[in-house]
Amino acid sequence: MSVTSFDLQRTAFMDAKRNMAKERQPREGGTRQMEEMDLESVIECARGHDGEALGELYRRYVRRVFGLCRYMLESRESAEDATSEVFLKLQRSIESYDRSIPFPRWLLRVAGNQCIDALRRRQRGRRAIVEVEDGAAVIEAPSSEPSPLGAVISKEERAKVRDTIARLPDNYRVPLVLRYYSELSYDEIAQQLDLERNYVAALIFRAKQELRRRLPHRST
Amino acid sequence: MQCYSEQTCALAVDGELAADEAQRLRDHLTTCQRCRALVDALRAENRVLSESLNELPEEAASPAGFSPRRWSWGWGDLAILAAVLALGSIIFGWFNELDIPAALEWFNPFSVSGRTNLIFHFFYYFGHGGTAMLADYAAVVGWICLLLLLGGSALLLGRRGRPHYPGLRLLIVLLALSLPSFALERRHGDFVTVAANETVDDTLLAAANMVRVDGVVNGDLLTFGRTVEVRGTVKGDLISFAQRTEVSGTVEGHIYTVSHTLDLEGQLGHSLYGLLQSLQIDDRGRVGDGIVVAVGDVSLEGEVKRSVDILTSGRADVSGSIGRDLTMVGSSLLLTNTARVGGNLSARVRQLKEVHIADGATIGGTRDIQVTVRESHFTRPRFYFHQAVWLAGAILMGWLGMLLFPGFFQATTQLVGSGWHSLGLGVGILVGVPVAIVVIAITLVGFPLSLMLLALYLAAIYLAKIWVGAFLGRILLKPSGATKGDWLLGLLIGLLLLTIVGFIPYLGGLLRLGVVCLGLGAFACQLYRASRPVM
Fold it and tell me: What is the pLDDT of residue B303?
């Protein structure tokens, strides 16, 4: 039963995806309309399980969601899987979206949860994403720590920063990405990771220090 | 007033400082140059982080995958492959399009004779429980290959799934280039002959419809062809890949062959190793060393100096002389009056009445004839022990795979569910890959490639059951989550089921074949998907 319902959902999702592909060359007015509709109305339609509206949401946010998954997870493969999961779940969970926060942010939160679940599954339920040693929350930077990253402007340098972030260990990378890509607050991150806010602050702080250490030839 | 710590400043920049404290910091900043500089730097850093992260890497541009970028490494490697092949064909100018089909017509599934051959072989093979044999073989060799592959890949993929493809490519190219460093003479055509008065000093590589050696080859003879005849002398080894290999002259080294039939009427200095449909050693045939063959039918009328080991699916007729032991596993054994075995005779046959030892036959050592009845498998504890070992091995392999490539293994398991699609692809691969291996190997430059492919092929055949088993287990268990534990439990149950079902007479063989194809298909599909670039 569970398999079947999952398949059905997947099929619905695939339909949305297929529609999307079709809609690359818009022929009908309806599609156009959907593209021009404001987010509110699209969400409203999507709540009514309108496949086209769901497709539109997919089209608008898939890149952003996939980006998050890609930063959070270790391979493109798992990022694609997580992205699919997020949009599959969206069909059900969109009803629970209460408009208290902007939709993109809400969606990224959902996606973040999905990724954290995936990471935890991979770690076999260990809370390996967040292993903070005692006292980490109150750590102060030694004076010898490298100074903050300067204005990195060139495309290559940005790519290098990205690459270095991607190579950070999970417990540094995940909060960093949630903070600066998903733009979640420390509280939201703490909630997602099931951690104290102080720990999140410490992790982000240390992540940045680690990043500086790993990017030695930066422009200052 | 004392300055603020960097962490506090960082909190402030992130907007995470409590309002009153933030106010105090702001006040402090108006007076403190050092802290102001720090806060500015931290702010700039945050901007760098946001900008860098938000500028998604190009591969993220189209996750559902319409982007041409996702092909990049696939194409890159295809390019390398093409370059290696092109290089190979330049180096070996003898190699041209027209000649491969002629030489390999009998093996080409797209030609009439090739197809007939293939169908015939397929049914023969299938009718003689070949699937089980293949699976058993793959279980042993596949295991080894797999361990090597997994070890190698783990090394390569060790760093957070970031394989060093350039290194790998370099390795492939180097391997490919380093190979043809030995002296080699190449001949090709419809009909390749070494005339009676001719001597080839090097190793001779011949690819032709008909290869005939009347003269002398001082090195090894490496042949691919429909018919290979050695009437003259080969001083080295004969390595033949042919429909029919006939040696009426002399081979001073060994014979390694994969042939439909091998007729030995002449002299062989050392041993014969072969995978054959039929082996005939004429009464003039002499083997200086031993014979190790897996063969359909064998007839041994000549003389073998040392031991003979035969794994046969049909008859083994011995009327000649064997210097040492004769060991055979098969369905029927006949020793005529003239037969002579210097050492021990040991035979494993299905029915005792299939063993005929004439009164005149001499056996120097002991006679050990045992009946291996298929049904009796189930009554022997050893059988269960073997199955348990096999199962444990498979589970261990699954666990290793899950540990090293969790995403890949789970995705492959899921792909098994695509049913006919995987099955069809699997059948294609099961048949196609050996052809590809031969075609790649024939270029010689591609030889290491073909070896890798062969290792991968055997490993995949072995793994096929694991994926299908895991899939079955998942269907049956309908587990809540996709944790490793669930996956392994599912695997155990699925494999148990597959093993039991595999023992159903006739149908079991078909099912095993289906399982291998399904698994292969899913694997290939997943391999294709996974070969898209990672960030």
Answer: 92
* Cβ atoms B149, B404 nearer than 8 A: no
Q: CB neighbours of A159 closer than 8 A, spacing ≥ 6?
A: B52, B57
- Residue B361 to residue B432: CA distance in whole angstroms: 46
Pairs from B109-114 (Cβ < 8 Å, separation ≥ 24) = B109/B431, B109/B435
The model's pLDDT over A165-217, given as tens digits with 9 standing for 90+, comes to 888 888 888 899 999 888 888 998 888 888 888 888 988 998 988 888 888 65
One DSSP character per residue, chain A reads -HHHHHHHHHHHHHHHHHHHHHTTS--SHHHHHHHHS-HHHHHHHHHTT-HHHHHHHHHHHHHHHHHHHHHHSSSHHHHHHHHHHHHHHHHHHGGG--SSS-HHHHHHHHHHHHHHHHHHHHTTT--TT----TTGGG----TTSPPPP----SHHHHHHHHHHHHHS-HHHHHHHHHHHTS---HHHHHHHHT--HHHHHHHHHHHHHHHHHH-TT---
Question: What gap in Å lies between CA B394 and CA B462, rounded to an integer?
Answer: 9
Question: Token pair 């287990």 is at which residue?
Answer: B473
At A34-91, the pLDDT tens digits run 666 788 888 888 777 777 888 888 888 888 888 888 888 877 778 888 888 888 888 7
SS3 B483: coil
The segment with the largest mean pLDDT, out of A53-57, A132-136, B475-479, is A53-57
CB contact residues (below 8 A), chain A span 70-99, against chain B:
70-71, 74-81, 83
Residues 105-164 of B with CB under 8 A from A: 159-162
**C-alpha span between B273 and B261 (Å, rounded):** 13
Nearest to B63 among A3, A83, A147 (CB): A83
Of A122, A162, A180, the CB nearest to B406: A122
The dihedral sign for the CA sequence B116, B122, B128, B133: positive
Q: In Å, how far is A30's CA from the nearest CA of chain B?
A: 23
The answer, yes or no, to whether residue B134 has pLDDT greater than 70, is no
Average pLDDT, chain B: 75
What domains lie within chain A, and their CATH numbers?
A: 2-122 (1.10.1740.10), 136-214 (1.10.10.10)
- What's the CA angle centered on B295, arms B515 and B367, to 5 degrees? 115
Q: Which residue has the tokens 């196609």?
A: B432
Give the phi and the psi of residue B238 in degrees, each rounded to 5: -110, 120
Rounded Cα–Cα distance for residues B422 and B441 (Å): 27
Of the candidates B185, B159, B153, B158, the one whose C-alpha atom is nearest the C-alpha of residue B171 is B153
Contact B60 A67 (CB under 8 A): yes
**Distance in angstroms (rounded) separating the CA atoms of residues B475 and B12:** 52
The CA distance from B353 to the nearest CA of chain A, in Å, is 54
Consecutive H or E run containing B6: helix B6-13
Instruction: Give CA–CA dist A118/B108, Å, rounded.
Output: 47
pTM given for the model:
0.39
- Rounded Cα distance, B462 and B466, in Å: 8
E strands along B1-88, which residues?
A: none
Burial of B405 (0-12, 13-18, 19+ CB in 10 A): buried
